[in-house]
Amino acid sequence: xxxxxxxxxxxxxxxxxxxxxxxxxxxxxxxxxxxxxxxxxxxxxxxxxxxxxxxxxxxxxxxxxxxxxxxxxxxxxxxxxxxxxxxxxxxxxxxxxxxxxxxxxxx
Length: 107
What we know:
The chain is of the alpha+beta class.
């Protein structure tokens, strides 16, 4: 298990990476990072929320399709319920919100 400061640093890098990927690829989302939460809003107002839950060292995604919790396992962020990859879930939620294929590359 990583230290709390390592988890915070890693999650901040991940949030910055997501924002950078959205900007670099020209997808029409507004990103707002505040505290532990990255809010990604589509043109129609649909929001995808990515946040870190420091006590459990988990990343969470909230989207129309549901809520997901991810824990780090062997260098990957996998859903605690069904082991789905963080990026797969995020890309599906962003694609659904934008109506176009979105693929955030892994960090």
